[in-house]
Structures are given as structure tokens and as C-alpha cells.
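#data-curation
PF: Archiving a pair of folding outputs for the training set. Convention for this channel: one message per protein, sequence first, C-alpha cells after, nothing in between. First:
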Amino acid sequence: SVYHVDVKVQKFEVKADASSRDLQDVHTTIVVNFSLDGNKCHELIKNVGVNFAQQIILPAVEEVTKASTALFPVEKVIQERPKLKKDIEDGLKARLSPYWITVQAVSITNITFSHDFSRAIEQKQVEEQNVQRAEFVRQQAEKEGQRQLALAEGQAKANRLLQESLKSSPEVLQMKALDKWDGKLPTYLGSGSVPFIKLEQGKDR
């Protein structure tokens, strides 16, 4: 039989389940871009068949992903995703090259965890956000307190300067007295032995 074999770059997607080093479930979606050796692909078809992706690539991705993921604690799976991807890619290149399958690139398009662990991660993130929010509020309150203190110190300094100026400047005292005067003349005027004279306001002579 004659089979048409595509030697251009092809894509194969696998949903692979694994466990982290601390035995947490890790569910990944791995995309493998690969190509076949045009000079040797007939050997692959002859020995494995046209369904080589399911028979060769699929189990290779599952096994390499399990082995690579098991090297990482679950919290590092996301943080060190590029390293995990490289480990899987290197493992697949070594695993598939004997079958004249060249791995061009590997991508981890999705990573999820067990429901319980996902909830724990969400709770931890909420707690961290609350701590950050509380710290922000504390810093803002501290800044406001410093601002109020600076204002109070500035006002106290201004008051001291004003008091000093009042002591040394009688004119300022007079101005203050005039500021407080209600505009009414006193009812009686007089000094020394001169009798007080009552002033009548608002009457014509």
C-alpha cells in the first residue's frame, strides 16, 4: 500500500495528568509541534503504522510529563513553568528521535490542580491581598499622621514667632486691639480728677 506522509510541521495536543514532588495532582495540556524525517518516515509507517501519533507520541508525552513534573513541588510548577516546559521538550526530543520524529517545540498551554488545592491557593492569595491591603492602609495612615504632625509643628512655630513679635512690637498689640474693637465708644470718658462725662449717643443737640 502507498501512504501519503506529511513531512511539514504538525501539531499534536495531549492532556496529561501527573503528580508533583509533594504528591499534588497536576493536570496539564501539552502541545507538541513535530515533523517527520522525509528520508526515514517510510520506516516509521512500516514499523508503527499511520497512527504513529497515538501509538508513539501520546504515551511519550504522558510519561515524560509525569517524570518531569515529579521533580517540582506543586508551588514551583507555575513559578518555574519555563523550566518544566524545557524539561518536557528535552525529554521528548530524546524519546522520539529514534522514531525519526523531530520535536520542533513544546508548549504547556494549561495547568490546573485538584479542586481542594486550587481552593487553598485562592485562599492564600486572598490572605496575601488582605495583608498587602492592610499594609497599604497602615502606610497611608502613617503618612497622614506625619503630615498632620508637620502641620501642627508648623502652626506651633508660627504661634511662637507671633508671640515673640507681640512682645517686641507694641504696634502689633494696638492692631490686635483694634481688630477686636466693636466700633462702639465707651459710655463714660475721663481721667485723673476730671469727672466722668456720660456721652449720649444717637441724639442731636
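PF: Second:
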Amino acid sequence: MKTIKVIIKSIIVVAITALLAGWYFIIGPHSDLEGKDFNLESNGLWLQHAWVGNEQETAVIEDLALKLAKYDIKYVYVHTGPFDSDGTIPEERYKFASEFLKILKAKNPDIVALAWVGQVRSELDIDDSIIRKNITTTCGELISETGFDGIHYDIEPIAHEDTAFLTLLEETRTELGDSAFISVATDEWQPSLLSDLAGEILDQDIKSYWETDYFKSTAETADQIVIMTYDTSLGETEHYEWLVEQQIIYLTQILVDSDAQLLIGIPTYEDDKESFDPEVENMETGLKGVVQGLNNKRTNVSVFTGVAIYADWETDESEWGIYENLWQGIQ
């Protein structure tokens, strides 16, 4: 009889322990701070190509500078590419960049302007050392001759085992030097075990994710990592908010020993495609997920830098109002 009681007690203890562990890792303890308590006024925003591809009136650029200050935007990713297949970008493509940057920074000196450059990975053979050299040379010219503070790489998709991209980052740092700012747009973090399991179920080779070691390797060279936390194919708002929360929890743990900044991308576009539902993934749900993640006791808040809004040309006044409310604490 005593043996049975011991077994029953052991089962109960194991069950309670499993439940507590499950609660801790799936939900976890939270504080109840608001978004404004985490806003370091170091947020990011993607800007469309027209700012550097077309001539703009001075007053229009100055209005943009004031808008960036209003919404605590420090980093702007100005679409300057894409790269041609040989790794170059014709100057004609960004011929108004110098004037744009001059006016923008005169009105808002705190802005860090990064040339948003990229291409579809299959169209840009970064395994080729000559093409990588063209890319890094182009990036150097964008900084030295045009006035950008650095580079924002957006080459998609980059699989977590893509060593050529890590080599490109290292060669970019060598070309640009330590003073230039290197930012990278990345896929979400996902443990390889989960991706392997999903691949088995779906009978697909799932590559569009980054695992822990790849993030750490990227952070050895990059100054900033911006997670593209969208196009998740999720169909419920609570699932998306939970996913954003998990990205913050785990990425702040992964990057805690690096000097790289971490920004979380928030979508405001409304593309009609299978992998994206704007009713699920949007300014409100994204910011709620961010705040939940930063309130989670497992998060290393010191690693977090800000949110990055994708994209300026898709964000209307009502969405900026949500941003002001949830992130800046403006009612």
C-alpha cells in the first residue's frame, strides 16, 4: 500500500512540475509595464525608394524629418537598391540621395540613415567572391560619396546555414571599417528541431528561419539585427502576439553577450497573400506582442533597442495613432 501511495505521490509531483514548467515556458511570469516604459526613442522605419530616386522639395523632406522626431524614429532604412545581379547599383537609381540626406540631417541631426540594399538571394550569387566584392565596394561608395551612415542588408531568403552571407558581412566590415553602421533584416528565430519536425509533416525542406548559432554569428559582425516579424501564415491574433513575444524572449537571451542592437519589425501593409493576414498581423497586434515580450520575466530587456515599422508608405494616421497610444503612451 505504501508503495502505491509513493508512486501516486511521485506521479502527482511529476505532473505538477510538468505543468509549472509548461506554464513558465509557454506563458511565464510577467510584469505590467506599458509600451512607453520600454520605448528608448531608438525605433526604425523603412522608407520608399522615391526619397532618393526622385527629386523632392525641401519642405517635404523637412516634414519627414519632423515626423521621424515625432514618432521617436532614429533609424531610417532608405530603399536605395536593389543590387543588380553583378552586385552593383547604378548611380542613376539613387541620384538624389545626397541632397535628400543633407536636408534630412540638417533638420534632424539625430537620424541614422542607412542605405537599404538587397535582392532575392537566387538573383544575387553571394557565393561568388567577385560579386561579394562588387557589393562591398558599392556599399562603401554609398557611405563615402552619398552620405549614408551605413548599410541595411535585406537579401531574402537567407537560410540559417548560408555561410556566404556571413562571409559577406565580414567582408563588408573590412571594406567599410568599424565606424560604418551595418544593419541586417532577418527572418524570425526558430529552433531547428521545430523546423525539422514541420518539414517532415509538410514534406518540405524549410529554410526560411534562423537558428540560435546563426544569429550569434551574425551579431559578431553586424551592429543591428532587425527581425522581420511578419508573413507568418498565422490565422489568429493571439497566436501572432504570442509569436512576437517568443521572438523577444529568446532573441534577447541569444544576443545577450553581443553588442548588436535588436529591433522587432512591425507590419502595417495589407498585402493579399497566403502567408499574411492584415487582420492578424498589424500595428496593434505587433506592438501588443512586443510589450508582452518585454514584460516577460525571461526577457533580457537590456538587449532590446526598439521596434521597426514596415513600412512608412503603408502606415496611415490611424495606425500612427495606435503607435502613439501603445508605444509612446500618448492618449
